[in-house]
Amino acid sequence: MKWLNGSKIEMVLVAFVAAIVLGDGGSAKADFTIGTPTNLGLPIWSSGHDPQGCCFSRDGLELYFASTRPGGASGPYPMFDIWVATRETVDAPWGEPVNLGPNVNSSAQEVTPAISPDGLELYFTWYHDYKIRVCKRPSKHAPWSNPEVLGPPFGGHEVRYPKVSADGLSLYFASRRPGGYGGEDIWVSTRASTSDPWSEPINLGPNVNSSFNEVGTSISSDGLCLLFDSNRTDGYGEVDIWVTTRTTTDAEWGPPVNYPNLNIFNRFPEFSPAIQNFAPAISPDGSVLYFDTPHAVWQSSITPIVDLNGDGIVDSVDMCIIVDHWGEDYSLCDIGPPPLGDGLVDVKDLIVLAEHLFEDVNDPTLIAHWPLDEGQGSIAYNSVANCDGTLMGGPVWQPDGGIVAGALQFDGIDDSVATDPVLSPADGEFSVFAWVKDGAPGQVLLSQTWVANWLCTDSVDGYAMTELKGSGRSSGGHLLSETKVTDGTWHRIALV
User: Fold this and answer.
1) Other CB atoms within 10 Å distance of the CB of residue 79
2) For residues 298 and 451, what is the distance between their CA atoms, to the nearest angstrom?
3) Per-residue confidence (pLDDT) for residue 73, from 0 to 100
4) Distance (Å) of CA 311 to CA 32, 326, 404
5) Coil, helix or strand for 131?
6) Are the CB atoms for 464 and 432 separated by under 8 Å?
7) pLDDT tens digit string along 351-382?
8) How many CA atoms, within 13 angstroms, populate the side-chain half-sphere of residue 224?
9) H or E element, residue 3
10) H/E element, 135
11) How does DSSP assign 391-428, residue by residue?
């Protein structure tokens, strides 16, 4: 494997990752990783009992969910009831679920529960009924009331998948009500206090909604991150989970992002090819995401990457990197607030980093990393494994260059860094990232010797390109980005 000759190309921070890191089709955002989904399993879910949405209590110690598990309503076919599981701490396992009883559950099939932050209101719908209902109680230890259908402004329109914000003052839901963009859209209704009525719903707008269906939602505790599922056609499966963020609770929602690590359907071959990932539910601290697929419930960790310079420890150097990019929309440092940042480097990012100061970092997904921070010598050391690179042709160290702690400058003739192979693209999913600057059209950035150029530039305009081809792309042209990377500025290039 080689990092090849570019005309005075500087390179830094190349990383090969065994599991896909957060990224969308147009830009990489590696300041968070979403862990490989794992089946939630017992006692929440067991084979043969379909899920229909779940939600966390405000303290993260209760999980409300709908299921056809035994012990609920009986009928000629599996019946949905709402259950609750509890745990002693957020790190403890869930206890055996308890049915909410006949005040809440009936033979009508209750699904998609949403608990208010004070624990005194429970919103849900009946299966295929398209009306939001609410049960109330005077205290958390009192029994639930019988459900009441929410009237105006919700009456007369199909509504489902309710979700309450952390302050209890916003109610998100999906509906085909007039004024949308086609199919089901996501709407929000607000109230001034928990004793006030809900306002006329507002559509979340074209950044979020489309001509397809946007349905199950989950809102982060700070109100800056919204997850939802959609069957729009630019996803990876039949239904995918998407994420949109905003800088403040008064700002517009940004365009939604699809994260491959959640949505690539062949990760779950038992459901391929018509995989559906739906009904996301994010934990109050933003560290865990639950979601449904047909016949199963899954969980994925959400972890900020706080070792910004990749030296294996979180320290003052990482803090200085944040300060250097203060006030910028700079994805490397946008690690706060959880779960997915807010598009601005500020004190929220420093708070997240401070929580991890002086921790040794061991990223299990990282299998190779060349920081290029040596500053001298003929070896570029791999900080993760024993696969160091040898400088060929005389590239020049730039200790004060690069984005983080140095770089290498190549002459565009015969300079390169050569390493032993670290992986074969044919073996499965992976990602690669590199910081690059300058160069010329038609030059190679990263190559697997005698096989293919993993990252390069096209011969005409200098756009980022790959010659690798996945399954189903044995013919046709190379994948070409829409970004010119030979323009004399630093670019973070990613191949997922």
Assistant:
1) 18
2) 37
3) 73
4) 17, 21, 10
5) coil
6) no
7) 999 888 887 766 666 788 888 888 889 998 88
8) 16
9) strand 2-3
10) strand 132-136
11) EES-PEEETT-TTTT-EEEEESSS-EEE------GGGS
Measured CA to CA, the distance from residue 231 to residue 215 in angstroms comes to: 9
Locate all alpha helices (DSSP H) within 121-169, ordered by sequence.
Answer: none
What DSSP line would sit under 341-381, residue for residue?
--SS-SHHHHHHHHTTTT-B---TTEEEEE-----SSSEE-
Contact 454, 433 (CB under 8 A): no
CA distance 9 to 463: 14
* Domains observed in the chain: 2-18+365-495 (no CATH), 38-303 (2.120.10.30), 305-361 (1.10.1330.10)
CB 56 within 8 A of CB 73: no
- Residue tagged 């269906």 (tokens): 213
Residues of the chain with pLDDT under 70: 1-31, 47, 74-77, 261, 264-274, 361-365, 450, 471-476
Please tell me the predicted confidence (pLDDT) of residue 253.
93
Distance, CA of 173 to CA of 165 (rounded, Å):
11
Please choose, from the candidates 21, 47, 25, 23, the residue with its C-alpha nearest in 3D space to the C-alpha of residue 34: 21
Provide the token pair at 233: 């056609």
Distance, in Å, from the CA atom of 31 to the CA atom of 348, rounded to the nearest integer, reads 14
Q: What is the dihedral of CA 322, 255, 288, 122, to 10 degrees?
A: 130
CB of 105 closer than 8 Å to CB of 82: yes
Backbone phi, psi, residue 265, to 5°: -70, -25
d(CA 364, CA 110): 40
Other C-beta atoms closer than 10 Å to the C-beta of 367 total 18
Round to whole Å and give the CA distance between 496 and 487: 23
Please give the pLDDT value at position 474.
Answer: 61
Q: Cα separation of 33 and 23, whole Å?
A: 9
pLDDT of residue 344: 86
| Contact residues for 477 (Cβ-Cβ < 8 A; gap 6+) | none
- Cross-strand bridge partners of residue 453: 447
Residues 6+ apart with CB under 8 A from 53: 65, 66, 111, 112, 113, 161, 216, 279, 281, 292
Residue at token pair 């696969």:
387
Look at residue 475 in the predicted model and tell me its pLDDT.
Answer: 64
Question: Amino acid identity, residue 469?
Answer: K
313 three-state secondary structure? strand
